[in-house]
Amino acid sequence: MQTKGRDLNGQRSRRYDRFKNLHPKTKQNRDYSAGSDIFLTHDALLRSYKDGNNNANLRDLLYDDEHDDDFDRPEESVYKEILENFIIKVKLQSSKQIRRIGSFSTINLIVMATVILLICSVSLLYNKSSFSFFREITNATTFIDQPVDQSPLHKIIVPYLNQLFPDKVLEDEDLFDPRLAPALLLLYLQFHIIGTKKQLEQSFSIPFSWEDWVDIDAKLQYDDDYLIEWLALHSNDFWNQLDDFNNLSCETFALLYGCENNRNFMSKCSDLDDNIPGYPYKFEVTGPTNAKMKEPGRILYGAMYLKSKMPPPQQIYLLDVCGENGEGSLMIKVDPDKNAKRTQVLRNKEIIMQLIDWEVTYTKKNMGSFLDKGWNIETLRKRMSSVLTKFGVEKIISNKRHKDIDRKQTFLTLRESTDHGVVEVSSWDFDDFRWDEEQFWNDLIISSFNGEEGNYDGRLYTRLEESENFRIRKGFHPKYLYEADIYGITEGSHYDWRFFSGSFMTSDHRQSVIHKLSRTWLRFCFENNLKTFIAYGSMLGWIRNGLTLPWDGDIDVIVTMETLNLLARNFNQTLIVDYSSKDGFQSAATGFLVDINPAYYSRVKGDGNNVIDGRLIDISTGLYLDITALAWTKDYLREVQMHDKLKRLVDKDYEVNRIFALEGEIYGQTLMEQLAKLQEDHELIHCKNDNVYTVSELSVMIPSYFEGARAFFPQEYEKIIWRLYPKALTRITEPDHVFDGVYRLWLNIHDCPAMVNEFGTVYVNAPFGTCNNSRVIHEYNLTQDYTARHLSMLEEGDWESYKLEESTESKPFRIDEFFFLYAARIGLPEDELVSSCL
């Protein structure tokens, strides 16, 4: 049986066709026939069970001709009966436990009462009287929304509308719109500010739930295809354990997903005595594990942690939410005690209804008009900017006064007026990289003694101590950043284990996530005057055409040591939401979590498990951006083993000279003396993976663009890349790819077979610029203006003259996977969707 997700060619068109059938006008034609996707057959399966037709009809739903090949042995009927009963039990149990409030049973009444009390409690937190609260909002000054260019894709999908407005005959949307939580957060803030008619207080904080931001319920569902295949192969061996699958435990999970007898997995897994409401399993996971799993198990494992154990972020950073062009960003503190039971907050049905009522009253709209046009991010962002301008924020700082940031306060950060939002040639110096671990701990101890924590968040402060105590005992730090280790493939190493949603992504989908990651990171750093540049393989992609390499699974960035310490101090465990108007309907389409490794203070490699200093993680997919810092440390040459990277730093021809040097011992001694001189002159800087640079190489940072957003790069970029990848700058071929200098793109040779011979070697007279593959032409149309500008800038090299303003940034080249599904849902042709990027 083919593994789910393997067939990527044509996957989007098939997916588009499937969702087109769900257009409201043709929903009655929904296909519940055999072979349709399992989540589309879920309702039909339950309906079949309730009607008592759980024999032939159910068999038709579960098995098509492909499946029949798996059951051509004598026990066919027995296996089918087992599978049918198992799937029915799992589906019924899951639906009962996860189903939203739909009836007024005693339990549901209790739940509804609890929710109502929560809403009232939230209101009472900010007002003396809950009755006067809504009246103040009703009587508040009405802001007139500024008109925005709105396409059908701008309208945010709001759940429960058919339940909230049964008389309107509305369709129930089950597509999870990631923009809903960012939109409702803006409404939540406006609700409070206008209702209190005063500044946003420094002490203001909000409740939080990961279920508002991540589609956890979808991830908690069984992968039915995998289960059917597994049961068909193993049910005879584990006959007596089949009933346990209805209440999945640590043991049965390990059995299903290939990590049985793994001590590390079992140490992070705990069976439950009682069911947790809304949680369909009999166990929970308490932390990361290095155990390899089958991919469906990895998705479940991360979702279970998000559901029951994942701490909320310490704050939410609303990027570019203030000002017409995003001149300011708002930091809102999260209070975990306000939602100790981890229930939905923003996606709660009653709260949505309350915000809709407020929206209609506040904007003087009628309900029919609202239901037709709905909410969109750009309107809410502009309104938020107006509200902040009118009422203000109690604490405002500039982007260059990092030490004024108190992470325990709500504040607005604004760019310096002297910046004028311009990126130009910048200078870095030794102070940016200076690091003294002993001084760091002394300062931290003094702060702690004075009742402070150096303004670090409590979790990081605790982990700093735990990490150091562990190193004292073991000689190395415990691994902190974990990936989604999966059997049989290496792609899992590019995903954070907590937010992992599956590795079988189309190239377009992966590139769209990386596109958003890099643009948000660069905007965030620019907004906060943090020093960073795109590095390693990502820098190589920039040199070629200003884009990431199409086969790259993540983004690599370097920061100064001062910037890394500021990230840890001010922004660790911050959820960044990018409201940039440049992104159009894709604005705020996901969140990005800043996660700093508590071992960052130690600048030695150790056992190699903590060479990454931090990550910016896309919470929708788990893809991430790796953050590493460069530092000058006084004991580096004494602590590190001499390696080729160091020697190439002082002799670019080291590989040749080490072989042909007439006096090898003298040559080696000369290299050591030169390195010692660099160290003494405060020139030798390094990351924890022993990649080395000189301060002089990074002293001049030039302005450019990466993935369409403004960015800095070292002026000595060619020298740096040559040292890291000696042949990369002259090579036009990489595995399965060739660089077309006419299209200015890396092309997949499977898309353009005329470029290469049967051995993958590029023809001497390869017809560059002639490949007419539709994917290639589409990519060229999207990027041709941008790549032409990029290469022109590199050829001219007149860096001092470049003063890059925000208006010169490109709008997104990529479209998130969600919008392909959304476009199909509303009947928008795919070519019209794609044209939005042109």
UniProtKB/TrEMBL annotation:
Transmembrane is among the record's keywords: yes
Q: InterPro entries of this UniProt entry?
A: FKTN/MNN4/W02B3.4-1, LicD/FKTN/FKRP_NTP_transf
Which keywords describe this protein according to UniProt? Membrane, Transmembrane, Transmembrane helix
Localization in the cell: Membrane
The segment(s) forming the LicD/FKTN/FKRP nucleotidyltransferase domain are 525-648
Give the compositionally biased regions (Basic and acidic residues). 1-20
- How the protein sits in the membrane? Single-pass membrane protein
- TM region(s), chain numbering: 101-126
Superkingdom is Eukaryota
Q: What's in the GO CC field? A: membrane
Example of a GO biological process term: glycoprotein metabolic process
Outline the segment boundaries, as ranges, of region: Disordered.
1-31
Protein name (Swiss-Prot/TrEMBL): LicD/FKTN/FKRP nucleotidyltransferase domain-containing protein
